[in-house]
Specification:
Number of domains: 1
Shape: rod-shaped
Helix content: over 70%
Number of strands: 0
Largest sheet: none
Radius of gyration: 48 Å
Number of helices: 1
Length: 113
């Protein structure tokens, strides 16, 4: 009987050791899984941050391009307006000179007659 008892104690010790080893393996597995999960979360967070940076850069570049195009359009309109205004002014001055010349001619005609 003592042999059976010793055998049972030995089996119990073996089972206890196996249980401890299983707990260690499970704990290591959980730790590794948590580490992998944590690293994946960090990578995902970094990827999101990088994507946001790229989006802000793209938005900024688009805004700059649009502002540049608008400024060029405004400058073109201003230039065309100034050119047209100059033409109108010149035409008005020419007409004024013609009118003054005509008036002078008419005055001279009436004075000479």
């Amino acid at each position: 009987m003592s042999r059976d008892f010793e055998s049972l104690l030995e089996d119990l010790k073996t089972l206890k050791d196996a249980e401890e080893k299983a707990k260690e393996i499970i704990e290591k597995g959980e730790n590794k899984a948590n580490k992998i999960k944590s690293e994946a979360e960090v990578r995902a967070s970094n990827a999101i941050s990088e994507q946001k940076k790229r989006m802000r850069k793209t938005e900024s570049a688009l805004r700059a391009d649009i502002e540049k195009e608008l400024e060029a359009g405004i400058n073109k309109i201003d230039s065309e307006y100034a050119e047209e205004r100059s033409k109108i002014k010149q035409s008005s001055e020419e007409r004024m000179e013609e009118a003054v010349s005509h008036v002078i001619d008419e005055v001279l005609k009436t004075t000479v007659e």
